[in-house]
Automatic annotation (TrEMBL):
Keyword Lyase: yes
Gene: iolJ
SUPFAM superfamilies: Aldolase
Highest taxon above the source species: Bacteria
UniProt organism field: Paenibacillus allorhizoplanae
Cofactor annotation: Zn(2+)
Protein name: 6-phospho-5-dehydro-2-deoxy-D-gluconate aldolase
Molecular function per GO: 5-dehydro-2-deoxyphosphogluconate aldolase activity; oxidoreductase activity
Pfam entry (one): F_bP_aldolase
Keywords attached to this entry: Lyase, Oxidoreductase
Amino acid sequence: MTTGIRPKNVLTLKQALEVAEKYGFAIGSFSPRYTPMIAAVLRAAEKMKSPAIVQISHKELIRYGITPKEFADEFYEKVVTEGITVPLVLHLDHTKELETIAEAIDAGFTSVMIDASEKNLEENIVISREVAEYARAKGVSVEAELGMIGTTDFVETDKDEELYTDPQEAQRFVRETNIDALAVSCGTAHGVYMVRQPKIDIDRLQAIRSLTPVHLVLHGGSGVPAAMMAGAIRLPGGGVSKVNIATDLEIAFLGALGREERLTNAECQALESSLLEKGRAAVEDTVIDKMSHFLGSKAQADHFV
């Protein structure tokens, strides 16, 4: 954040999800993956009067050639220059490295995710608690993961194994780590669904909700049917309030450019302006569709004081 002054509409994850859970909608956590696409997510949010989370993971930072500061600076610049007024969160997604988490917090991220889900329960608790204590002292929210969320493209995470979240373990994990949000594994996966189709385990979600009040996060939102997602969001007592959407945005962007191969961030920045705007328009349309027909977040910005 170049100015050092955070705009009033940029919130922590905890602040944003408290409102979402109260009013029964989910906030999309969108991964633009290329810094020129951040503006498209913000424009969509402003048009829909919807809160939004803009995120990037550690693996995406490496794959696309971006630093946390570059991503944050572009985010904050566009919040100002695009005149964005709706509630926003700047979130660091799946990250295992404490150094990257510290770098992101220093750059102005208002939320970070520590992903120690590959560790055993005891180690995951220790690592996640350490990050929660560090981030909270700096006014930043923390998301963690319990269970392992599968993947089909290895962009955000390294493993394709899936291990469903155990509700009893979730109760202990949340109590001992003091995290703000919990990413649960209950049937979705990162990437594009090709053979295996998503099937959200609503009973598992309900069991986790009954044992812990923490805000619930669903990763792998791209490709999940809207009716299935609605059931997860509207659970009695509060359902999923943050849904990660990444792959659908990149597919829309690359499709608008008539290509399949991913770009680096530098290659994206070097595109001629007409192509960039074409890509931005496709991403914006995708985000608008998700907010309107998938998340229930359209026109929900008015609930934020």
